[in-house]
Amino acid sequence: MGLNLVTVIPALDGPGLIERLKIIPAIFKLWQDFDRLFKEKRRLEKRTESSMYSKISEEIRELGQRLGDATIRKFHKRLTRNPTEETIECIRLWVDNERELDTEVEEEQNSDSAGPSGTRE
């Protein structure tokens, strides 16, 4: 199940074609990262899809941005033909924040399993 190019670009002709084609890999990578984090977080928190969209919207607000549940759902379900820069930036902000949290948890787990001298026992 791959990303349909039409879901990312509204038209494959006309002015700006080259610029639109250049962003496809970046948007697709962002979607993959979002999808992976979404599924992982949903599994850990035992939430429904719908409640996850609300939770992510709330977390984006806590990061100082605004993005509605429906917009997040449309991006995740790949229903948005041409996501706005604002949508992309908000999703990227959330993905980056989740990665930082994952890194912090991993570092904390690694330090907890280290012995008194800082080496693993």
From TrEMBL:
Protein name: 8163_t:CDS:1
Region (Disordered): 102-121
Polar residues composition-biased segments: 111-121
